[in-house]
Amino acid sequence: MLKLASCDSQGGVYIANDYVYRLVESSHRDSVTNVLKIINATNIDGVVQTNICSKGEVFNSITDIRDALILKHKKVRFISYPHEWCASMLKDAALSHLDISMQLYKQGLYLKDAHPWNILFEKGQPVFVDFTSIVSAESLLSEKYLESNQNYKNEKGEIRITRVIKEIFERMYLPYFINPLSFYAYGQREYVRKAIEKTTLNSSTSIISLRESMPKLRLGRSIFLNLFGLFKLRFNLKNIVKRLIENNDVPGFYQNMHQCVSNNKVAVGASAYSSYYSEKGENHDSVYSEQWNDKQKTVYNALNEPKIKSVLDVACNTGWFATMAEKLGKQVIAFDIDEGCIETLYTQVKNEKLDILPLVMSFTELTQDRYSIYDGKKVLINASERLLSDAVVALGIIHHLILGLGMSFEKVLDQLISLCDKKLIIEFVDMSDAMIQNEPDFFPAYSKNNVLLDGYTLEALVTLCEERGFDVKCEKSHTVSRTILTCSKI
After folding, report:
1. Going by C-beta distance under 8 Å and a sequence separation of 6 or more, which residues neighbour residue 82?
2. Could you tell me the residue range of the domain that residue 314 belongs to?
3. What is the tens place of the pLDDT at every residue in 261-281?
Protein backbone atom coordinates (compact mmCIF):
# COMPACT_ATOMS: atom_id res chain seq x y z
CA MET A 1 0.00 0.00 0.00
CA LEU A 2 1.48 3.32 -1.12
CA LYS A 3 1.12 6.47 0.99
CA LEU A 4 1.06 9.61 -1.13
CA ALA A 5 2.42 12.98 -0.17
CA SER A 6 -0.20 15.27 1.30
CA CYS A 7 -0.37 18.83 2.57
CA ASP A 8 -3.93 18.31 3.75
CA SER A 9 -4.21 18.63 7.52
CA GLN A 10 -7.30 16.43 7.47
CA GLY A 11 -5.33 13.23 6.83
CA GLY A 12 -3.31 10.99 4.49
CA VAL A 13 -4.08 8.99 1.34
CA TYR A 14 -3.16 5.33 0.79
CA ILE A 15 -3.40 3.53 -2.56
CA ALA A 16 -4.22 -0.19 -2.31
CA ASN A 17 -4.89 -2.79 -5.00
CA ASP A 18 -8.66 -2.32 -5.16
CA TYR A 19 -9.45 0.93 -3.36
CA VAL A 20 -7.99 4.23 -2.22
CA TYR A 21 -8.21 4.85 1.52
CA ARG A 22 -8.12 8.21 3.25
CA LEU A 23 -7.53 8.63 6.97
CA VAL A 24 -9.30 11.69 8.35
CA GLU A 25 -8.10 13.07 11.67
CA SER A 26 -10.69 12.83 14.45
CA SER A 27 -10.93 16.63 14.72
CA HIS A 28 -12.31 16.73 11.15
CA ARG A 29 -14.60 13.71 11.51
CA ASP A 30 -17.89 15.61 11.85
CA SER A 31 -17.26 18.09 9.03
CA VAL A 32 -16.13 15.39 6.56
CA THR A 33 -19.04 13.13 7.52
CA ASN A 34 -21.49 15.97 6.89
CA VAL A 35 -19.95 16.66 3.48
CA LEU A 36 -20.21 12.97 2.60
CA LYS A 37 -23.90 12.88 3.55
CA ILE A 38 -24.65 15.85 1.30
CA ILE A 39 -22.65 14.44 -1.64
CA ASN A 40 -24.34 11.04 -1.43
CA ALA A 41 -27.80 12.55 -0.97
CA THR A 42 -27.57 14.95 -3.91
CA ASN A 43 -25.67 12.76 -6.40
CA ILE A 44 -23.24 15.49 -7.43
CA ASP A 45 -21.78 14.54 -10.81
CA GLY A 46 -18.06 14.05 -11.26
CA VAL A 47 -17.00 13.33 -7.66
CA VAL A 48 -15.37 9.98 -6.90
CA GLN A 49 -17.65 7.41 -5.24
CA THR A 50 -16.85 7.46 -1.51
CA ASN A 51 -18.04 5.58 1.56
CA ILE A 52 -17.07 5.30 5.21
CA CYS A 53 -14.92 2.24 5.73
CA SER A 54 -15.43 -0.25 8.55
CA LYS A 55 -12.50 -0.58 10.91
CA GLY A 56 -13.07 -4.30 10.67
CA GLU A 57 -11.22 -4.26 7.38
CA VAL A 58 -7.56 -5.19 7.54
CA PHE A 59 -4.97 -2.44 7.05
CA ASN A 60 -1.63 -4.16 7.46
CA SER A 61 0.25 -1.24 5.93
CA ILE A 62 -1.56 1.57 7.74
CA THR A 63 -0.33 2.36 11.21
CA ASP A 64 -1.67 4.63 13.92
CA ILE A 65 -5.32 4.56 12.84
CA ARG A 66 -6.54 5.36 16.36
CA ASP A 67 -9.75 7.39 16.18
CA ALA A 68 -9.38 8.39 12.54
CA LEU A 69 -12.35 8.29 10.19
CA ILE A 70 -11.49 6.01 7.27
CA LEU A 71 -12.91 6.81 3.85
CA LYS A 72 -12.89 4.26 1.04
CA HIS A 73 -12.86 5.70 -2.49
CA LYS A 74 -13.57 3.86 -5.70
CA LYS A 75 -10.21 3.41 -7.37
CA VAL A 76 -9.74 4.84 -10.84
CA ARG A 77 -7.75 2.00 -12.43
CA PHE A 78 -5.00 4.07 -14.00
CA ILE A 79 -3.54 7.30 -12.65
CA SER A 80 -2.61 9.97 -15.18
CA TYR A 81 -1.23 13.48 -14.84
CA PRO A 82 -2.01 16.79 -16.58
CA HIS A 83 1.21 16.85 -18.59
CA GLU A 84 0.22 13.47 -20.06
CA TRP A 85 -3.18 14.69 -21.29
CA CYS A 86 -3.96 16.19 -24.66
CA ALA A 87 -5.14 19.80 -24.55
CA SER A 88 -8.80 18.82 -24.88
CA MET A 89 -8.51 16.65 -21.76
CA LEU A 90 -7.04 19.53 -19.75
CA LYS A 91 -9.83 21.78 -21.02
CA ASP A 92 -12.48 19.22 -20.01
CA ALA A 93 -10.84 18.90 -16.58
CA ALA A 94 -11.00 22.70 -16.20
CA LEU A 95 -14.67 22.75 -17.17
CA SER A 96 -15.43 19.83 -14.87
CA HIS A 97 -13.88 21.70 -11.95
CA LEU A 98 -16.23 24.62 -12.61
CA ASP A 99 -19.25 22.33 -13.01
CA ILE A 100 -18.52 20.63 -9.67
CA SER A 101 -17.95 24.01 -7.99
CA MET A 102 -21.37 25.17 -9.16
CA GLN A 103 -23.10 21.98 -7.98
CA LEU A 104 -21.39 22.21 -4.59
CA TYR A 105 -22.25 25.89 -4.18
CA LYS A 106 -25.94 25.07 -4.48
CA GLN A 107 -25.50 22.72 -1.50
CA GLY A 108 -23.51 25.20 0.60
CA LEU A 109 -20.19 23.46 -0.15
CA TYR A 110 -16.95 24.65 -1.77
CA LEU A 111 -13.64 23.46 -3.21
CA LYS A 112 -10.79 24.77 -1.10
CA ASP A 113 -8.28 24.48 -3.95
CA ALA A 114 -8.34 24.45 -7.76
CA HIS A 115 -5.77 22.40 -9.66
CA PRO A 116 -5.78 19.57 -12.22
CA TRP A 117 -3.94 17.04 -10.02
CA ASN A 118 -7.24 16.53 -8.18
CA ILE A 119 -8.72 15.05 -11.36
CA LEU A 120 -8.33 11.67 -13.09
CA PHE A 121 -9.98 10.32 -16.23
CA GLU A 122 -12.20 7.25 -16.54
CA LYS A 123 -13.90 6.28 -19.82
CA GLY A 124 -13.28 9.76 -21.19
CA GLN A 125 -14.86 11.51 -18.19
CA PRO A 126 -13.05 13.67 -15.58
CA VAL A 127 -13.39 12.35 -12.02
CA PHE A 128 -12.66 14.60 -9.01
CA VAL A 129 -10.77 12.39 -6.54
CA ASP A 130 -9.57 14.66 -3.72
CA PHE A 131 -12.66 14.28 -1.55
CA THR A 132 -11.44 16.29 1.44
CA SER A 133 -10.95 19.33 -0.78
CA ILE A 134 -14.74 19.62 -0.58
CA VAL A 135 -15.58 21.69 2.48
CA SER A 136 -18.32 23.67 4.19
CA ALA A 137 -18.31 27.47 4.30
CA GLU A 138 -17.09 27.34 7.89
CA SER A 139 -14.17 25.09 6.98
CA LEU A 140 -13.31 27.19 3.94
CA LEU A 141 -13.12 30.34 6.05
CA SER A 142 -10.83 28.52 8.50
CA GLU A 143 -8.35 27.31 5.88
CA LYS A 144 -4.96 28.61 6.97
CA TYR A 145 -3.19 28.68 3.61
CA LEU A 146 -5.69 31.20 2.23
CA GLU A 147 -4.49 34.72 2.95
CA SER A 148 -7.98 36.16 2.48
CA ASN A 149 -9.03 34.46 5.70
CA GLN A 150 -6.64 36.76 7.55
CA ASN A 151 -6.83 39.87 5.40
CA TYR A 152 -10.64 40.05 5.36
CA LYS A 153 -11.57 38.27 8.58
CA ASN A 154 -13.55 41.30 9.80
CA GLU A 155 -15.79 41.38 6.76
CA LYS A 156 -19.27 39.94 7.16
CA GLY A 157 -21.52 37.65 5.16
CA GLU A 158 -21.03 36.29 1.66
CA ILE A 159 -18.34 38.81 0.68
CA ARG A 160 -15.79 36.86 2.71
CA ILE A 161 -16.59 33.70 0.73
CA THR A 162 -16.37 35.72 -2.49
CA ARG A 163 -12.90 37.03 -1.63
CA VAL A 164 -11.68 33.53 -0.82
CA ILE A 165 -12.99 32.19 -4.13
CA LYS A 166 -11.21 35.02 -5.94
CA GLU A 167 -7.94 34.12 -4.19
CA ILE A 168 -8.29 30.42 -5.04
CA PHE A 169 -8.88 31.36 -8.67
CA GLU A 170 -5.85 33.64 -8.85
CA ARG A 171 -3.49 31.37 -6.92
CA MET A 172 -4.48 28.04 -8.44
CA TYR A 173 -7.03 27.95 -11.25
CA LEU A 174 -5.25 30.66 -13.23
CA PRO A 175 -1.68 29.24 -13.18
CA TYR A 176 -2.59 25.54 -13.26
CA PHE A 177 -5.54 25.56 -15.68
CA ILE A 178 -5.81 28.86 -17.58
CA ASN A 179 -2.13 29.50 -18.27
CA PRO A 180 -1.43 26.00 -19.65
CA LEU A 181 -4.56 26.25 -21.79
CA SER A 182 -3.21 29.57 -23.05
CA PHE A 183 -0.01 27.77 -24.05
CA TYR A 184 -2.03 25.36 -26.14
CA ALA A 185 -4.21 28.02 -27.75
CA TYR A 186 -1.67 30.72 -28.50
CA GLY A 187 1.58 29.34 -29.76
CA GLN A 188 3.75 27.27 -27.38
CA ARG A 189 2.25 23.79 -27.62
CA GLU A 190 5.61 22.01 -27.69
CA TYR A 191 6.57 23.57 -24.34
CA VAL A 192 3.38 23.15 -22.34
CA ARG A 193 3.64 19.54 -21.09
CA LYS A 194 7.15 19.95 -19.75
CA ALA A 195 6.13 23.21 -18.07
CA ILE A 196 3.14 21.55 -16.39
CA GLU A 197 5.27 18.65 -15.15
CA LYS A 198 8.00 21.00 -13.93
CA THR A 199 5.53 23.03 -11.87
CA THR A 200 3.63 20.08 -10.36
CA LEU A 201 1.84 21.24 -7.23
CA ASN A 202 3.71 20.52 -3.97
CA SER A 203 6.86 19.41 -5.80
CA SER A 204 7.85 22.86 -7.05
CA THR A 205 7.88 26.43 -5.79
CA SER A 206 7.26 27.83 -9.29
CA ILE A 207 4.10 28.18 -11.36
CA ILE A 208 3.38 28.74 -15.03
CA SER A 209 3.26 32.51 -15.33
CA LEU A 210 1.38 34.76 -17.73
CA ARG A 211 4.66 35.75 -19.38
CA GLU A 212 5.54 32.12 -20.08
CA SER A 213 2.20 31.57 -21.79
CA MET A 214 2.85 34.39 -24.25
CA PRO A 215 3.70 33.16 -27.75
CA LYS A 216 7.27 33.58 -28.90
CA LEU A 217 7.75 36.77 -30.89
CA ARG A 218 8.20 35.87 -34.53
CA LEU A 219 7.39 38.36 -37.23
CA GLY A 220 4.27 37.55 -39.18
CA ARG A 221 0.50 37.82 -39.15
CA SER A 222 0.01 34.74 -36.94
CA ILE A 223 1.89 36.23 -33.98
CA PHE A 224 -0.38 39.27 -33.96
CA LEU A 225 -3.48 37.09 -34.16
CA ASN A 226 -2.16 34.99 -31.29
CA LEU A 227 -1.35 38.03 -29.19
CA PHE A 228 -4.74 39.56 -29.91
CA GLY A 229 -6.46 36.34 -28.84
CA LEU A 230 -4.38 36.10 -25.67
CA PHE A 231 -4.99 39.73 -24.66
CA LYS A 232 -8.70 39.29 -25.33
CA LEU A 233 -8.76 36.25 -23.05
CA ARG A 234 -6.93 38.13 -20.29
CA PHE A 235 -9.22 41.12 -20.63
CA ASN A 236 -12.27 38.87 -20.30
CA LEU A 237 -10.79 37.15 -17.24
CA LYS A 238 -10.04 40.46 -15.58
CA ASN A 239 -13.62 41.62 -16.10
CA ILE A 240 -15.05 38.32 -14.82
CA VAL A 241 -13.04 38.61 -11.60
CA LYS A 242 -13.94 42.29 -11.26
CA ARG A 243 -17.66 41.49 -11.55
CA LEU A 244 -17.28 38.71 -8.99
CA ILE A 245 -16.25 41.21 -6.31
CA GLU A 246 -18.48 44.09 -7.43
CA ASN A 247 -21.63 41.97 -7.64
CA ASN A 248 -20.74 39.40 -4.98
CA ASP A 249 -22.04 36.87 -7.51
CA VAL A 250 -20.38 33.47 -7.15
CA PRO A 251 -22.77 31.55 -9.47
CA GLY A 252 -22.31 34.22 -12.13
CA PHE A 253 -18.54 33.91 -11.75
CA TYR A 254 -18.62 30.15 -12.33
CA GLN A 255 -20.92 30.53 -15.33
CA ASN A 256 -18.80 33.28 -16.90
CA MET A 257 -15.61 31.31 -16.30
CA HIS A 258 -17.20 28.23 -17.86
CA GLN A 259 -18.08 30.20 -20.99
CA CYS A 260 -14.60 31.75 -21.13
CA VAL A 261 -12.85 28.37 -20.93
CA SER A 262 -15.32 26.82 -23.40
CA ASN A 263 -14.55 29.54 -25.95
CA ASN A 264 -10.79 28.96 -25.68
CA LYS A 265 -9.85 26.85 -28.72
CA VAL A 266 -7.09 24.48 -27.68
CA ALA A 267 -7.49 21.40 -29.89
CA VAL A 268 -4.51 20.70 -32.13
CA GLY A 269 -6.59 19.07 -34.87
CA ALA A 270 -5.62 16.23 -37.17
CA SER A 271 -1.93 15.51 -37.75
CA ALA A 272 -0.09 13.96 -40.68
CA TYR A 273 -0.40 10.60 -38.93
CA SER A 274 -4.13 10.76 -38.13
CA SER A 275 -5.02 8.95 -41.36
CA TYR A 276 -2.38 6.22 -40.83
CA TYR A 277 -4.79 3.29 -40.64
CA SER A 278 -7.07 4.42 -43.46
CA GLU A 279 -4.10 4.98 -45.79
CA LYS A 280 -2.90 1.44 -45.11
CA GLY A 281 -6.36 -0.03 -45.59
CA GLU A 282 -6.46 -1.18 -41.94
CA ASN A 283 -9.26 1.05 -40.67
CA HIS A 284 -11.73 -1.81 -40.33
CA ASP A 285 -14.36 -2.07 -37.63
CA SER A 286 -12.71 -2.97 -34.31
CA VAL A 287 -14.98 -6.00 -33.75
CA TYR A 288 -13.41 -9.16 -35.19
CA SER A 289 -13.83 -9.61 -38.93
CA GLU A 290 -12.39 -11.96 -41.54
CA GLN A 291 -11.51 -8.83 -43.50
CA TRP A 292 -8.77 -8.08 -41.01
CA ASN A 293 -5.18 -8.58 -42.14
CA ASP A 294 -2.79 -11.06 -40.52
CA LYS A 295 -1.34 -8.45 -38.16
CA GLN A 296 -4.75 -7.55 -36.78
CA LYS A 297 -5.76 -11.20 -36.36
CA THR A 298 -2.45 -12.12 -34.69
CA VAL A 299 -2.74 -9.33 -32.10
CA TYR A 300 -6.42 -10.13 -31.52
CA ASN A 301 -5.63 -13.79 -30.80
CA ALA A 302 -2.77 -12.84 -28.49
CA LEU A 303 -5.01 -10.58 -26.41
CA ASN A 304 -8.11 -12.75 -26.45
CA GLU A 305 -7.30 -14.57 -23.20
CA PRO A 306 -9.14 -14.32 -19.85
CA LYS A 307 -5.90 -13.73 -17.93
CA ILE A 308 -5.25 -10.55 -19.95
CA LYS A 309 -7.41 -7.92 -18.24
CA SER A 310 -5.40 -4.77 -18.98
CA VAL A 311 -3.53 -3.69 -22.11
CA LEU A 312 -1.02 -0.92 -22.80
CA ASP A 313 -0.75 0.17 -26.44
CA VAL A 314 2.61 1.88 -27.03
CA ALA A 315 2.78 4.35 -29.95
CA CYS A 316 -0.92 3.74 -30.55
CA ASN A 317 -1.51 6.30 -33.32
CA THR A 318 -5.30 6.90 -33.35
CA GLY A 319 -5.88 3.75 -31.32
CA TRP A 320 -7.25 1.06 -33.63
CA PHE A 321 -5.61 -1.73 -31.64
CA ALA A 322 -6.51 -0.03 -28.35
CA THR A 323 -10.15 0.05 -29.40
CA MET A 324 -10.00 -3.57 -30.53
CA ALA A 325 -8.62 -4.55 -27.10
CA GLU A 326 -11.39 -2.56 -25.36
CA LYS A 327 -14.01 -4.41 -27.40
CA LEU A 328 -12.50 -7.61 -25.97
CA GLY A 329 -13.38 -6.31 -22.50
CA LYS A 330 -9.90 -5.12 -21.56
CA GLN A 331 -8.99 -1.99 -19.63
CA VAL A 332 -6.70 -0.09 -21.97
CA ILE A 333 -4.08 2.65 -21.82
CA ALA A 334 -2.93 4.02 -25.17
CA PHE A 335 -0.19 6.57 -25.66
CA ASP A 336 1.52 8.29 -28.54
CA ILE A 337 3.81 11.28 -28.95
CA ASP A 338 1.51 12.70 -31.64
CA GLU A 339 -1.09 14.86 -29.87
CA GLY A 340 -3.34 15.03 -32.92
CA CYS A 341 -3.69 11.25 -32.90
CA ILE A 342 -4.43 11.17 -29.17
CA GLU A 343 -6.96 13.95 -29.54
CA THR A 344 -8.75 11.88 -32.19
CA LEU A 345 -8.76 8.86 -29.89
CA TYR A 346 -9.90 10.92 -26.89
CA THR A 347 -12.88 12.23 -28.85
CA GLN A 348 -13.90 8.66 -29.68
CA VAL A 349 -13.36 7.48 -26.09
CA LYS A 350 -15.39 10.38 -24.74
CA ASN A 351 -18.26 9.96 -27.19
CA GLU A 352 -18.50 6.18 -26.85
CA LYS A 353 -17.49 5.98 -23.14
CA LEU A 354 -14.76 3.45 -23.96
CA ASP A 355 -12.59 2.02 -21.19
CA ILE A 356 -9.45 3.54 -22.68
CA LEU A 357 -7.09 6.12 -21.17
CA PRO A 358 -5.46 8.07 -24.05
CA LEU A 359 -2.23 9.90 -23.19
CA VAL A 360 0.34 12.07 -24.95
CA MET A 361 3.67 10.51 -24.00
CA SER A 362 7.07 9.75 -25.49
CA PHE A 363 8.43 6.25 -24.93
CA THR A 364 11.85 7.80 -24.32
CA GLU A 365 10.59 10.36 -21.75
CA LEU A 366 8.16 8.50 -19.51
CA THR A 367 7.20 10.27 -16.28
CA GLN A 368 9.54 9.56 -13.37
CA ASP A 369 8.88 9.77 -9.62
CA ARG A 370 8.59 13.29 -8.23
CA TYR A 371 8.64 14.04 -4.52
CA SER A 372 7.02 16.59 -2.25
CA ILE A 373 9.09 19.57 -1.18
CA TYR A 374 7.19 19.42 2.12
CA ASP A 375 7.26 15.83 3.38
CA GLY A 376 9.48 14.01 0.84
CA LYS A 377 6.80 11.50 -0.13
CA LYS A 378 5.75 10.76 -3.70
CA VAL A 379 3.70 13.33 -5.54
CA LEU A 380 4.02 11.77 -8.99
CA ILE A 381 4.37 8.02 -9.47
CA ASN A 382 6.59 6.79 -12.30
CA ALA A 383 4.89 5.54 -15.46
CA SER A 384 6.09 1.95 -15.16
CA GLU A 385 4.44 1.59 -11.76
CA ARG A 386 1.21 3.40 -12.66
CA LEU A 387 0.65 1.97 -16.12
CA LEU A 388 1.80 -1.62 -15.53
CA SER A 389 -0.51 -3.82 -17.61
CA ASP A 390 -1.06 -7.50 -18.21
CA ALA A 391 -0.15 -7.09 -21.88
CA VAL A 392 1.94 -4.50 -23.72
CA VAL A 393 1.50 -3.99 -27.46
CA ALA A 394 4.34 -2.29 -29.36
CA LEU A 395 3.66 -2.24 -33.09
CA GLY A 396 5.56 -0.25 -35.69
CA ILE A 397 7.87 1.43 -33.18
CA ILE A 398 10.90 -0.80 -32.48
CA HIS A 399 12.65 0.05 -35.76
CA HIS A 400 12.12 3.79 -35.14
CA LEU A 401 13.67 3.56 -31.67
CA ILE A 402 16.70 1.57 -32.82
CA LEU A 403 17.38 2.76 -36.37
CA GLY A 404 15.92 6.21 -35.83
CA LEU A 405 17.07 7.15 -32.31
CA GLY A 406 19.98 4.74 -31.90
CA MET A 407 18.63 2.90 -28.85
CA SER A 408 19.75 -0.67 -28.27
CA PHE A 409 17.51 -3.74 -28.40
CA GLU A 410 18.30 -4.29 -24.73
CA LYS A 411 17.24 -0.80 -23.61
CA VAL A 412 14.02 -0.84 -25.64
CA LEU A 413 13.12 -4.33 -24.48
CA ASP A 414 13.85 -3.67 -20.81
CA GLN A 415 11.68 -0.55 -20.82
CA LEU A 416 8.81 -2.44 -22.46
CA ILE A 417 9.17 -5.24 -19.90
CA SER A 418 8.98 -2.73 -17.04
CA LEU A 419 5.45 -1.94 -18.24
CA CYS A 420 4.44 -5.56 -18.81
CA ASP A 421 3.15 -8.13 -16.31
CA LYS A 422 2.27 -11.16 -18.47
CA LYS A 423 2.57 -10.76 -22.23
CA LEU A 424 4.58 -8.61 -24.65
CA ILE A 425 3.49 -8.28 -28.28
CA ILE A 426 6.19 -6.73 -30.49
CA GLU A 427 6.38 -6.07 -34.21
CA PHE A 428 9.81 -6.53 -35.77
CA VAL A 429 10.47 -4.77 -39.08
CA ASP A 430 13.45 -6.12 -41.03
CA MET A 431 15.75 -4.16 -43.31
CA SER A 432 13.97 -5.23 -46.50
CA ASP A 433 10.84 -3.33 -45.46
CA ALA A 434 9.81 -0.69 -47.98
CA MET A 435 9.61 2.03 -45.34
CA ILE A 436 13.22 1.54 -44.25
CA GLN A 437 14.43 1.29 -47.83
CA ASN A 438 12.42 4.22 -49.20
CA GLU A 439 12.32 6.63 -46.23
CA PRO A 440 15.89 6.93 -44.90
CA ASP A 441 15.15 10.32 -43.36
CA PHE A 442 13.02 8.54 -40.76
CA PHE A 443 16.08 6.61 -39.53
CA PRO A 444 18.87 9.15 -38.92
CA ALA A 445 20.80 7.01 -36.40
CA TYR A 446 21.19 4.21 -38.93
CA SER A 447 22.11 6.66 -41.69
CA LYS A 448 24.94 8.01 -39.51
CA ASN A 449 26.08 4.67 -38.13
CA ASN A 450 25.58 1.54 -40.23
CA VAL A 451 27.02 -0.54 -37.37
CA LEU A 452 23.54 -0.43 -35.81
CA LEU A 453 22.52 -2.97 -38.42
CA ASP A 454 24.95 -5.60 -37.09
CA GLY A 455 22.73 -6.65 -34.18
CA TYR A 456 19.43 -5.72 -35.78
CA THR A 457 17.98 -9.16 -36.55
CA LEU A 458 14.86 -11.09 -35.66
CA GLU A 459 17.00 -13.84 -34.17
CA ALA A 460 18.78 -11.39 -31.86
CA LEU A 461 15.47 -9.98 -30.61
CA VAL A 462 14.03 -13.46 -29.98
CA THR A 463 17.16 -14.46 -28.04
CA LEU A 464 16.99 -11.34 -25.83
CA CYS A 465 13.31 -11.99 -25.08
CA GLU A 466 14.03 -15.61 -24.14
CA GLU A 467 16.94 -14.55 -21.92
CA ARG A 468 14.48 -12.33 -20.03
CA GLY A 469 12.15 -15.22 -19.25
CA PHE A 470 9.69 -15.15 -22.14
CA ASP A 471 8.38 -17.93 -24.32
CA VAL A 472 8.42 -16.46 -27.84
CA LYS A 473 6.23 -17.25 -30.84
CA CYS A 474 6.94 -15.61 -34.19
CA GLU A 475 3.74 -15.01 -36.13
CA LYS A 476 2.52 -13.25 -39.26
CA SER A 477 2.20 -9.52 -39.64
CA HIS A 478 0.66 -7.85 -42.70
CA THR A 479 3.77 -8.07 -44.93
CA VAL A 480 6.58 -10.62 -45.22
CA SER A 481 9.12 -8.01 -44.02
CA ARG A 482 7.37 -7.79 -40.65
CA THR A 483 6.95 -10.32 -37.86
CA ILE A 484 4.82 -10.28 -34.71
CA LEU A 485 6.58 -11.66 -31.62
CA THR A 486 4.11 -12.91 -29.03
CA CYS A 487 6.15 -13.17 -25.82
CA SER A 488 4.58 -14.81 -22.75
CA LYS A 489 6.23 -14.80 -19.33
CA ILE A 490 7.19 -18.30 -18.28
Report:
1. 90, 93, 116, 117, 176, 180, 196
2. 276-489
3. 999 889 887 776 666 666 555
